[in-house]
Amino acid sequence: AQSVAQPEDQVNVAEGNPLTVKCTYSVSGNPYLFWYVQYPNRGLQFLLKYITGDNLVKGSYGFEAEFNKSQTSFHLKKPSALVSDSALYFCAVRDITYDYKLSFGAGTTVTVRA
Amino acid sequence: DGGITQSPKYLFRKEGQNVTLSCEQNLNHDAMYWYRQDPGQGLRLIYYSQIVNDFQKGDIAEGYSVSREKKESFPLTVTSAQKNPTAFYLCASSSRDKLFFGSGTQLSVL
User: Fold this and answer.
1) What are the strands, taking DSSP E only, across A15-72?
2) Are A74 and A49 in contact (CB under 8 A)?
3) What pLDDT does B2 receive?
4) Are B59 and A103 inside 8 Å of each other by CB?
5) pLDDT reading at B39 higher than 90
């Protein structure tokens, strides 16, 4: 079985401060890991993915994520948050040992205040 | 334009009625997915299909059915057995593990 946990329902930060959204995962085999973002009244958009290689992955809009195998984590980070980063963020995992099943976490609402 | 088209945008179901949500893609993707989004519960996988004429149950398949007769189409039927169908339904297709989502269908019960 595979699963994703996003321990924080909400994250609030001031504009210009660092932003971190936490994600931990559980798979039987090897993981592919993803972050997606859902802006208000817009569809879900792909941010970044970890497949293999460098543990630090860079994605869209200045976001990055670090894969930590020992802690089974894949936290999303942005050095300096913008008000426009306010959205709902989802972490997702696929166990590549098996098939195309892609499981999402419950989501974290990020609010960046001016 | 290439993309995922879901219809209708809003759908109302009467008790005991089956309803079908449409999902069409012209991206030539092999894999397609159906997710249900409820507030506070994130995206939960209903069904997914890796190729034509093949599909697998996700985590919450009870009360739902799908078909994959064509590569472009992956319709979802919400049956009367689904007792709590009110939710936002998202269809997606994938290429190289990047999902492309449709704009969703909001299903409500009358």
Assistant:
1) 19-21, 24-26, 31-38, 44-50, 56-58, 64-68
2) no
3) 66
4) yes
5) no
Q: Which helix (H) or strand (E) holds A87?
A: strand A87-95
- Residue A101 corresponds to which tokens in the numbers above? 């099943």
Q: What is the pLDDT of residues A35-70, one digit of tens each?
A: 999 998 778 899 999 998 889 999 999 999 999 999
Chain B residue at shortest CA distance from A37: B101
Q: What is the percentage of chain A residues whose pLDDT exceeds 90?
A: 80
Does residue A46 contact residue A114 with C-beta atoms inside 8 Å? no
Name the helix (H) or strand (E) containing B42: strand B42-51
Averaged pLDDT of chain A: 93
Task: Catalogue the long-range contacts made by B86-89 (C-beta closer than 8 Å, 24 or more residues apart).
Answer: B87/B36, B87/B37, B87/B38, B88/B36, B88/B37, B88/B38, B89/B6, B89/B21, B89/B34, B89/B35, B89/B36, B89/B37, B89/B46
> Which among B31, B40, B43 has the least Cβ separation from residue A100?
B31
Q: Which residues of A touch B101 (CB under 8 A)?
A: 43-45
B107 and B19 Cβ atoms separated by less than 8 Å = yes
- Is A31 part of the contact surface with chain B (CB cutoff 8 Å)? no
8 Å CB contact between A34 and A49: yes
